[in-house]
Design goal:
The complex is a heterodimer. Chain A is an all-alpha fold. Chain A is built from eleven helices and no strands. Chain A has helices spanning 2-6, 41-64, 66-74, 88-107, 117-126, 131-158, 167-189, 194-208, 214-222, 229-261, 279-287. Chain B has two domains: 3-35; 43-181, Rieske [2Fe-2S] iron-sulphur domain (Rieske Iron-sulfur Protein), CATH 2.102.10. The chains are: A mainly alpha, B alpha+beta.
């Protein structure tokens, strides 16, 4: 109840029918014989202070009308049987947020130049306070994000959650997967050590094996016929500016559709049987206007 | 057409032009390197006397400037061999970049072959593929002799018959119809004639 007083009324979870705040306080005694106690100034100030957060939220709500959207999103119905597998999407989102946050801080120390990139990474790892930790979060987090994406994708596939009307969200998800792989590919070059250099050379060469446009794609990626100084700054720009923008926009669209369409029940839960078991009874029910509401 | 419709079309057209004025130069800026060919550079790698015709000598020289050691590459150089029908007055410089995916190959003296450590590509003495996943013979570098020094120049690729073509990336076939499926890039140098 304490928490409830902080949440403005429209944002509160709607009371379940039959469980409403039916209990009322004791009936007031005779006001003349026992007048209500007047609260002291200090108590009144305390009450005001307690209501301050609610006041702030109410102030915001009066100007944004966000509560309708927020209650719809936060208290939306989820189907029976929703289980831990449904958290893989949120886990992926969390991995992305970790990548974005650590990436921003890494950019504060990283130098995207062929002569200084390796030294700046060594500086981050060896000298900067918690540098190895933040770099490690970013490095291992990228693998975690890719793994989580595939687990999430597998969940959606095996639960049949890609079917009508959610096909578009599957398509957006595939684009998000491609963008994430591009992030992993471009990020790999940035430390500019032997491994990242040769891995990127091989990756660009694989791009080049696509017929007709492959060779041009390779040149565009490298900014020239050979992997060089411009390649690194190009990969850096793609890695930290181009793709993150697209990723954030598409994650927004992905989440919008999740909230809009809701989640699916797991496939092992059968749809509830129609009340009319026999075909003739169903027909009769249809005639009577019940609509035969089976799915 | 109503007045309202005319204004709608005009406003959208102007918006499109304004958008294109920003987007097109930016895209052009990003893809311009495809059409840019750098300056041809030659580097001396040793006196002619250092090289023989029956085995290779490994040399290291700079292929890409401005990125330090990462821009260096290795070539295997020898004199042209009469036995193989080559001009003995010309130098043969074979790139060590495997044409499968770009790993560095090694010339194994005892076998007389180039062997790639990554996926088992094998090339014969002239650089022709004899085993493994590579798609064409090893690339060559243009070579010339100036003041008694062997100089190496731009990279070029060869067909399975060792005919020079413009440089291709690893993984791309050369010769025949492949010349169209993997078109030469404007950023590469023309191959040496003959």
């Amino acid at each position: 109840m304490k928490l409830d007083s902080l949440i403005p009324a429209p944002l509160r979870k709607p009371a379940k029918p039959g469980k409403g705040n039916g209990a009322k306080g004791p009936a007031p005694a005779d006001l003349k014989t026992s007048p209500p106690e007047r609260p002291s100034d200090a108590a009144r100030l305390g009450d005001r202070a307690k209501e301050a957060p609610a006041d702030v939220l109410a102030w915001l709500d009066q100007r944004t009308a966000a509560t309708g959207f927020l209650t719809g999103m936060l208290y939306r119905k989820v189907p029976k049987g929703t289980n831990w597998f449904y958290t893989l999407g949120s886990a992926t989102l969390f991995a992305f947020i970790v990548q974005a946050t650590t990436g921003v801080f890494l950019a504060m120390f990283y130098t995207p130049s062929t002569t200084q990139a390796y030294a700046s990474i060594a500086h981050i790892n060896n000298d900067v306070f918690l540098g190895a930790f933040v770099h490690g979060m970013h490095k291992w987090g990228s693998s975690v994000m890719v793994i989580l994406i595939f687990l999430h994708m597998g969940r959606v596939f095996f639960f049949g959650a890609y079917k009508y009307p959610r096909e578009l969200n599957w398509i957006i998800g595939v684009v998000l997967l491609i963008l994430t792989m591009t992030m992993a590919f471009t990020g790999y070059l940035l430390p500019f050590d032997q491994r990242s250099f040769w891995a990127s050379a091989v990756g660009i060469n694989i791009n080049g094996t696509g017929p007709v446009i492959g060779p041009y794609l390779s040149d565009a990626l490298r900014a020239g016929p050979e992997l060089g100084a411009t390649t690194l700054s190009r990969f850096y720009a793609i890695h930290m500016l181009l793709i993150p923008g697209a990723l954030i926009a598409l994650i927004g669209a992905h989440l919008y559709l999740v909230v809009k369409l809701g989640t699916t029940a797991p496939p092992w839960l059968r749809a509830e049987k129609p009340k009319a078991a026999s075909p003739t009874a169903a027909l009769q029910a249809g005639v009577e206007g019940n609509g035969g509401g089976s799915r | 057409m109503t007045r309202r419709r005319a204004f709608t079309v005009a406003a959208q057209g102007l918006g499109g032009i304004a958008g294109a004025a920003i987007v097109l130069p930016a895209v052009g800026f990003a893809v311009a390197p495809i059409f840019h060919r750098g300056k041809e550079r030659w580097e001396a790698v040793g006196p002619v006397g250092d090289f023989v015709e029956d085995t290779y000598r490994q040399v290291v020289f700079t292929e890409t400037e401005g990125i330090g050691d990462a821009g260096k590459t290795t070539a295997y150089v020898r004199k042209g061999s009469k036995q193989l029908g080559e001009n003995p007055n010309e130098m043969v410089a074979v790139s060590n970049r495997c044409v499968h995916l770009g790993c560095p190959v090694r010339f194994v003296e005892a076998a007389g072959n180039f062997i790639c450590p990554c996926h088992g590509g094998v090339y014969d003495f002239q650089g022709k593929r004899i085993g493994g996943p590579p798609v064409r013979p090893l690339d060559h570098f243009q070579a010339r002799i100036r003041n008694g020094q062997v100089e190496l120049g731009p990279r070029y690729s060869v067909t399975s018959q060792l005919e020079p073509v413009r440089a291709r990336d690893p993984g791309e076939f050369t010769g025949g119809i492949w010349e169209y499926l993997y078109p030469p890039r404007p950023s590469t140098f023309p191959p040496p004639s003959g």
